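Good morning N.,

You mentioned wanting to compare the apo and holo forms, so I went ahead and generated the holo version with 6-phosphogluconic acid. This is what I fed in:
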Amino acid sequence: MNTYAMGLYGLGVMGRSLALNFIRRGIPTAVYSKAEGERTAFAAAHPAGQWTVCESPAELVSALARPRVVFLMITAGAPVDQVLEELLGLLEPGDVVIDGGNSHYQDTIRRCERAAKEGVEFLGVGVSGGEKGALEGPCLMVGGSSKGWERCRESLEAIAARAPDGGLCCGYVGPGGAGHYVKMVHNGIEYAVMQQLADVYGFMRDGMGLSASAMAEVFEGWRTGPLASYLVDITAAVLRKEEDGAPLVDRVLDVARQKGTGCWSVVEAAERGVYVPCIDEALFTRYHSQRRGDRQKCAQKLPCTAEPLDPSLTAPELEQALYAAILCAYVQGLELIGEASRALGWDVDLASVVELWRGGCIIRSVLLERLASALREGAEPMVLASSLREPLSQAEPCLRRTVLAGAARGIPLPALGAALLYYDQSRTARMSVNLVQALRDCFGAHTYERIDRPGTFHTEWES
Ligand code: 6PG
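and this is what came out, ligand included:
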């Protein structure tokens, strides 16, 4: 008793894998799950070692060395509040509670305050990398109580992933809900990049007529170039997978769902006025995919004057198009984190966040090195940093040609198109919204500003 350094509460796939990771790293771990079956299965599946299965939350707490650290890996939402209340009745001041689920950052802010009333340090930690990551080394985006972080830092760093240069993919990003905010936007970027990969796949399938195995070969070729990343690796693997001698991807229904973090990112961006079209399009494309019946009806009835494909569009051109688009997606996500950090006074260091993402997480990619350098340059806006501006402007013609070719053939490329839109909107010195503002004033006397004089004006436009 009182000897275990880590208490893992929740033994679903992620909780179980994290517990094993702690145990393998030599961190004595006590585990507990409300589900008796999960407790029994854990006890039966693993050889005896520096771990114990507890039969109640009270037993879990009393098994832990002081200051106690309890890591929750349970369903986000109300269950976290219930378990936190239960634990606050058992823990002492100075103890730490970590929430590793995909919780909404505002809930995390509230829980930090609630725990602090009892002297308990609360951490909201974004955990990325899925089951394999949890087991072998996740990326950990830590937010909340800095005292709490110092108390469990060693254990968290021990289980985390490492970047290719050996850098730790575990770090404290800021107080309150900062860790969960960073994870939420990580997922928003994940949605955007996955949709960009799907756009290119759709373009090759429906525009170029390539088979899944031919596309697998193309993506395999991109695994070592400028697009080298986990998501490109698994795209190649998915396209390669066969069942009964035929590509399995061809049998997967074209309906994509989501669990909420992408939607939260878009709502956040809308409320903060941050332009994130790649994330928006990726999210709404998932929603629209669910209206499959309507799409199929319209496919029969709405004509498209498809033009022949631009023959100069080859795999290397598409690679460049994707490169530019993915850069834009990351920049949009980082701008959202930056805006929230300013508004909430978190002081998140974006370059450090990008460095954390270099290993263990779903959006790990060689591109992150470039993004980190761009952030360290400190240019405002970030796209003007020389380490971004140059590659973006070199790849932009390929992105433009691909999006044009998609439009000419009637192949929707939502997340590539959104990247081009972002690029063009960013470089438009004089936008067309002067007309919007004049119209607002015309029908609603909302007033307008002028380029030739200071002040606020109203005009009787129709007289
Ligand atoms: C990760 C993932 C993980 C998960 C989410 C998003 O970083 O390991 O982002 O948290 O995949 O559940 O998935 P949805 O697409 O279901 O929203």
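Residues 102, 128-130, 187, 190, 258-259, 261-262, 361-362 surround 6-phosphogluconic acid (CB under 6 Å).

Happy to go through it together on a call whenever suits you.

Best,
F.
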